[in-house]
Records
---
Amino acid sequence: MEILQKIFSNNKSSNIGPFFLFPYTLYVLQFIHPPAAGGGTPEVMAFLNGIIVHGSLSLKNLVVKFTANVFAVSSGLPAAIQAPIITYGSVSLHSTVCTI
């Protein structure tokens, strides 16, 4: 128990996160898959209304959005997780249905 208290009470390493993880968030979204930027809820709503937005429900979108969200939250950015969770569910269900 003392070891955990020492680890979590040490705040010296928490200031390093924004400097190292924020550029990775930008790199992942800008160069690997730019359509993954944003929450993704409008794309899901468009798909439910019958409009196909190419690249919005792909596994690449899921991986990039998840990685960027992890980097953004880890670096201390004020990022919400509700909208990406909607996209995670819709992409996983769409991928499952399309492979069957």
Note: The mean pLDDT is 79.
---
Amino acid sequence: MVMTVLMVCALMGQQAADAGKLIEILGGETTRAQRDDASAELVKMGKDAIPILIESLQDKRGYDRRDIANRQNLPVTATQPKAVMATITVGEHCSKLLYDIITPRSSQYAGSFKVISEQILLVEDWNEWWKVNQGKSLSDIHTELQPLVDEYWKQHGITQKVKY
């Protein structure tokens, strides 16, 4: 019994170390492919990655540069706006990964229509959310959040606030 507990603790420590290395890749001098791979690994880690992702929300290192110009709902004949380049921080990307982990993947109400917002869920305080949810399985978290995801789709893409 003691040996099992020690093995679990060692494994958890290794997973935290691995997650920390993956966060370093996100903000390091790495290729886009390496950052994409690290992101996929963090999401694959599921609940085990949540604490390090929350710790990294304030990380101001650059993750990527993207064009953030709004091109939605432009008339067909309109001139495309000029590119507006912005740096996406590691912290901002970690927020996206947190949502990727906790958001259920499907909804019977999902449609092939333009949504109002691409952000399905909103967690206002990840630390408080984690205090309430860390003892739950990821499956239980998905089950609890499924009604919000369904409501998002029923409302054609209005972001749903997660209560905890």
Note: Residues 1-12 have pLDDT under 50 and may be disordered.
---
Amino acid sequence: MQGTTLATKAQNQVVAAIKQAQGVAISAVSQVSETIGNVLPELPRTPLFDRVPDPAEIVATSFQFAEQMLETQKAYTLELLQAISPVTGKIVPSASRKPVRRSAKAKA
């Protein structure tokens, strides 16, 4: 269980660092975009303009698909673990069982 706790702490730290870096990047991009937006003239609308998909819609759709795939893979992996449990139950210590400690004689 301690390994899981350490892994969770490390994961949380990684996520926090990524979020902080993303915040810095968004701030920088916003400043640059605002500067360019003030200089860039309006572009004329063409029929092709209406065919260009909304970037936010593309992102939402792509992440929805990615979430579905991740959930599918999670379900598959958990079912696979269940399928091999007759073997793993005999060789992998369960979280509910206490590990067997070897005596000094057994170690020698």
Note: The radius of gyration is 26 Å.
---
Amino acid sequence: MENVEWTGRHRGTMDTTKQVHVSAPNNRAWPAQLAHKLKTPLATVCDSAELLADGTLGPLSARQQEVADILRRNSRELQRLIEELLGEAKRP
């Protein structure tokens, strides 16, 4: 993971991931640490996607609604994957 370089707005996320991985490469707890670091920003994305897709923030065009629905679906899938990662990290 150390040889991956991210630029732009994704850099902070990669830096956090790299920090967790580098600080504990042989530690079994690092997947849980990484998952917890991902949960907070993802919760914001999920909540925002819900607000958009549900029309709470106002009406959307058909194309905007399609994109909001995709965003909501994919953010939920990411939440599921993170929860699965946490579940696996808790296994002995």
Note: The chain has three helices and no strands.
